[in-house]
Amino acid sequence: MRAARFPRRRARGYDPDQVHALLDRVADALSGRARVSPEQVRAAVFREVPGGYEQQAVDRFLAGLEWQLAHQALPPTSLRSGRDLLAVELPRSTSGYDRAEVDAFLARAALALDGGRRMTAGEVRHTRFTTTSGMRRGYRVREVDNLLDELERELRFRGR
C-alpha cells in the first residue's frame, strides 16, 4: 500500500504527498500500529495541484481501504513462503540500510515463514537497521520498509 502509485493528470489532481500521508496512516492502522476509522478515510480531502493524482483512481483505491478498515480485513500478501521473501530483489542505494543486517534478518524471517523458527509481527515492527552512506552501498530504505510492512501483515494474518 505504501508503494501505491496512481495515474497523474496534466491538469490538477490530488496532491501526491497528502495522498501518501493518508496511505501511510492506513497502512499503520491495518498493521495494528495506529487507529484510523473508515469514516476518516471517507472524509479525507486533498489539495489539488498541477500534475497531481487522478482523483477517480485514488477514490476507488480509498473505497477499498475503507472497506478493509470497516471489516478489519488484512490484505493478502505475496509472502507465502521463505522462498517468496528471499526472492524479493531490493534495490541498492548510496545511502540506505546495511545490506548484511537486512540479509541476516530476512534469512531469519524466511525460516519463520517456513515454520523453522518463531518470529512475531511485533519483532518485525520494532526491527531497526544501521544506515550506510558513501562507498558502502545499502538497500533503499523505502523498499525495505515496504517489504517489512508486508512481512508484518503476513505474520499477523498467520496469528503471530
UniProtKB/TrEMBL annotation:
Q: Cross-referenced Gene3D superfamilies, in alphabetical order? A: 6.10.250.660
The domain of life is Bacteria
NCBIfam families in alphabetical order = DivI1A_domain (TIGR03544)
Name-wise, this protein is: DivIVA domain-containing protein
This protein's species is Actinosynnema mirum (strain ATCC 29888 / DSM 43827 / JCM 3225 / NBRC 14064 / NCIMB 13271 / NRRL B-12336 / IMRU 3971 / 101)
